[in-house]
Amino acid sequence: MRRAVLVVNPFASQVTEQRVEAVRAELERGASVDTLFTDRPGHAVELVEAVTEADAIFVFSGDGGFNEALNGLDAGAPPLGCIPGGGTSVLPRALGLPRDPLEAAEQLAEAFEQDRTRTISVGRVNGRRFGFNAGIGFDAELVRRIEARRSRAGRPGDVAFTLEVLRLIAERHGRFPPALEIEGHGRAAFVFVGNTDPHTFIGGVALRVAPQARFEDGLDLIAPRSVRPADVPRLVRYLATGRGQLDDPRILALHDEDRIAIRCDRPMPLQVDGEDLGDVTEAVFEAERAAVRVLV
Asked: How far apart are the first and last CA of the chain?
């Protein structure tokens, strides 16, 4: 019988004992499944690195767990199956999997049985892999604020996220002047880097920051050169629809890039896949093309 490993983050918001058992039952239809639980940040990296002789690795978690799994995979790793267990779970949704973890597990079990995989590129910034997005400045500051809310009162909902966006814009009076240099392309206020479209979700709404980004390509970058109060409504519409800004000279847009180097005027927050990596003054984004096989 084929062997699979199921890595579970028991702290993810949609993970319960009952769902773990139900997910495992789906996966065990065609494989022997070893279940491993994470108990601290970074543990999924270690668990995935230690997997040997498995035919697939499944991760039942939120996006933080999927990111750690990506960072634990080596060049010869078995395919990865991402089961949505977080409040947003962008990566499996961007791969076309259902939001419901049991439905996703059923689809992935079938994909495993039929050897149905997709080879995707991943991004890397300052040595850290990411699956769907990264950013310096605006979105990284939002991630930091949401994480602070989470530590105080559990996972904030979509209303809280929207309020944080509005609060950040209001605090800056709608002004975001140039604050970093993109090597070879000029200055910008902040940057979004996408490995796929959509960039993220608010509930059922997809935010299409880099609408041309694809898992099979290199990296896309969207960077407003500066933002004034009059630009805010148009920028918000663009983030919600992905239309109307790419030909604007005030927006720097790069598509299918292998390497993007950035120098910040001052330490600025960096995020990958919704995780705060602290402040940086320099960042090098690189595309790892055709790096990972995923079950779909």
From this structure: 21
